[in-house]
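Field: COMPLEX_INPUT
Field: COMPONENT_COUNT = two
Field: RESIDUE_TOTAL = 800
Field: MODE = joint
Values follow.
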Amino acid sequence: MVFNSLPFLIFLMLFLPLYFALKGKSRLWWCLAASYFFYGWWDWRFLGLIIFSTLIDFTIGAKMAIETEEDQRKKLLWLSVAINLGVLAFFKYFNFFADSLQEAVSVFGWQLSWNTMHIILPVGISFYTFQSMSYTIDIYRRDLEPEPSFLRFATYISFFPQLVAGPIVRAKTFLPQLRRDHAFNWDNLYLGLAQMLWGFFKKVAIADTLALFVDQSFGSPHHYGSLHLFIGVFFYAVQIYCDFSGYSDIAIGLARTMGYRFPVNFRTPYFSQDFSEFWTRWHITLSSWLRDYLYISLGGNRKGYWKTLRNLMITMLLGGLWHGAGWTFVFWGFLHGLYLILQRMLSPAWQKLHARLRTPKVLYGGLNILIVFSLTCLAWIFFRSTSFDRALIILERMASLEGFSWSNVINKFAVLQGGFLIGILLLVEVSSFQLDYRRRIIYQPVFRAFSFGALLWLIALFGTFGANAFIYFQF
Amino acid sequence: MHLYISNFSLTQFRKAEPFEIKYRLRLSMKQFLWIAGFILLVLAGDRLGGYLLRQVIEGSEFRYSRLYTGRAEADLLLLGNSRGLAFYQPYIEEKTQLATLNLSYNGLPINLAAGLVRDYYDHYPAPEKIVIDVSLCDRFDDQLIMNFSPYLPYSQRIDSLIRLADPQIRGGLGLSHLFRYNSEIFQRALYYQNRSDEGWVVERNLSEKESRSVAEDYEFIIYYPEEAPEILADLVRYCQQQGSEVQLVLGPYFPAFLAKMSNLETYISTIEQATGLPVHNFSNTVDDFHLFADFQHLNKAGSKVFIDSLFQMGVLSSRTEQALE
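Field: COMPLEX_OUTPUT
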């Protein structure tokens, strides 16, 4: 079930009244049943996988808490990590690794042959696996007490607003919230609705509208001139941001209406002035997960200069692989790893240069934003392309500047409409630096009515309706 | 079941002082009034916006706006998908001295095209001639049909086609008037607000490099819906019954691309069998890549060459020639 569909709207209208009418255990049961129903709507067979993950980590967490021997605790942690990553590796990466191995040995003239299995990727497996793993790792690190109630733990793992595409909410953030009953609250409702509407606007009006142009551009790049492809890549950068942050907004807003606070997942990432900042503003819950559980576990920046660079690269490579079972995703991670490394190497000299030239602060900031955004777009080309060949065709055609004219852009109306919608996005996001929209939504009923109304009118005028799935569902 | 809503909690009501109950009731009443006001505001804004955008549609010089507002009477009707844009109207009018109306649109499917032509006959006297590029039988396109929603209030046929394509979307169009203008067609109508669309043609030039890249394209097969030729045949009969002469043509393709079209002959003969009319095949009449916008579309210069061929083959003729005949 996707958020931008009629069945979900009906589901929500049935779910919420009873949610507020119940309290205590019965409310948790209701949440759990609704979450399993929500997930099972896509494919009920994979419910078993969530329940399996839940049972494993709940049991291991409980055992680890009573275990005093450090060795035993470590073994339990490794067991949890191995099972979680094993399931993920099988369902998400089996064919990828098998195919890659076949290709690798064929270089030496050897032949490995086996039938590739048709493994269906369970929606959201990367998200709930990481969420579940954070629970056992935090217990191992003694950052978290094990959850005594299986019902509460199962609700935490499967909670439908963030089950399939995040944000990745950690146990220590969410479990304490599940211990309290959240009463209906008008402020939560308004703030939650505002965030959901903004998320829907970003997804249905911006991301899905841009998707039509983007799909054309990446689908057959050899048919288009370079300006068309430049626009296509720029639109993809906006599309993926609106698609994913739109989903996060809907999830966070939905949780807010129910009284829960989820962590922020995006903070205008394309305004970042360097790549470290970018990763504190893009998919924050994943990047902080990778930082806390992978980068720091590898030694972080405590083991010298070169090992810090190595750790950055490993983290980004695995981050790329997390996104998808394909070498283009790994290369995307590699590029971001490279950006972070180069930044560490070059930024002192870059800063000195600007200090010597006395570049105005605004110009310096603007230039940094432009560089980070352009390099991010370059990496998106590999992320979006179905193969390296396709990505290289796009890059080659863009670099050639052949057909770099407005008359060579196909579907100019889509470009104009996309530009208009991106303008609205920029206006709202930039103005939110100055204006406290949340305060206005709570305390100014007229502002609230007109802003909600404006979003609904914009969705009616520009929305693409057809329940297009969110990009991050595939991850 | 315990009702657990902060402003209404029954337990809290039992414990609360009367002034507190009054305060909570007032607060809740305020919120419900806000919700009622909000719903009214959304509906009023939607209807007002819908009304204003309808004025845009009615004032536009776009072909379908003219069609539905009594400003499109013509002696010669032209019809096709994006390839039909090669019927470059200003040049045809100059050569024929006839008033023309080109109803072609990018990806126009035959079922929608048939509805538009019938709507034309409902509003105007029958044209002398209708020229149809038969490549418009190559698809049905529900998405494009739904894009014609701005003209929903003017055409029962468009209404039925949208209802058939997606009843849910049709329901949404009834609920929200703004939603009717969520369409590419509306954007075009907006674009042609103060300018004529008669010179609309695919304005691009195929480069030499692109013309060589046709080798990268695989074999091209025209997949057409089984019912499409029959719908065209119905339309042809209808036009003939109304007293119009019907000419079927197939416009030019880029030669190297044409060579990759494996079932063109079968496609043409299927159309001819269904309609009982010959298809004037111009598919291989233009070979200079400068005259193409891409492999399937002529640019303005190419369109003029194609139109000259239409005259040479007698598909089109000037008013003087007609008088002599």
